[in-house]
Amino acid sequence: MTSTSKNYAELEDLLNRLGAPIGPSECHGFICAQLCTSAEPDSRSWRECLGAEGEEAEATLRRISDASGEDLASTEFTFEPMLPSEEATLAVRADALAAWCRGFLFGLGNGGLTEAGLSGDCRELVEDIERISRARVELEQGEEFALLELVEFVRVGAMTVFQELKPMRTPSQGQPSLH
């Protein structure tokens, strides 16, 4: 089991126990958008938007947020949207990708980002992510490559938004600051 699928299962279990109104992919999209728009993810937003309260919930979300932040900032391009494992059907994985995109868009808006805050290229990426979030993708079993292309597009798009909003810093510059 990869760390992404382990985190997916752990987050799914936590959200189910909390009776949260969203699933793990949408939650992860929200967390990633928070990382793009905030110097530090806001646990108050986790409580209000995700229905996640309590020490266990905050610790799990903090750990996933920290790992996702490292992956988004990595020069190794290790970031991956949190989606069900490849054992899940294509339909389940496609629905989860759309949910991840919805969470990401909600998180960007919740973080106060407007279209004016993005370059033209980045704005187009966000618009494409919005289209994916609304799509009901009907894939046949043999069309896994099409889903993989969409996942890769979203993966690179999220890293691009992160890099635009959180410019890379050299180690001597320290942590990003909010202006």
From TrEMBL:
One Gene Ontology cellular component annotation held by this UniProt entry: cytosol
Q: Which Pfam families match?
A: UPF0149
Superkingdom, taxonomy of origin: Bacteria
Q: What family does this chain come from, according to its entry?
A: Belongs to the UPF0149 family.
Which residues constitute the signal peptide according to the record?
none
Q: What is this protein called?
A: Uncharacterized protein YgfB (UPF0149 family)
Q: Which organism is it from?
A: Methylohalomonas lacus
Transmembrane domains' residue ranges: none
**InterPro entries recorded:** YgfB-like (IPR011978), YgfB-like_sf (IPR036255)
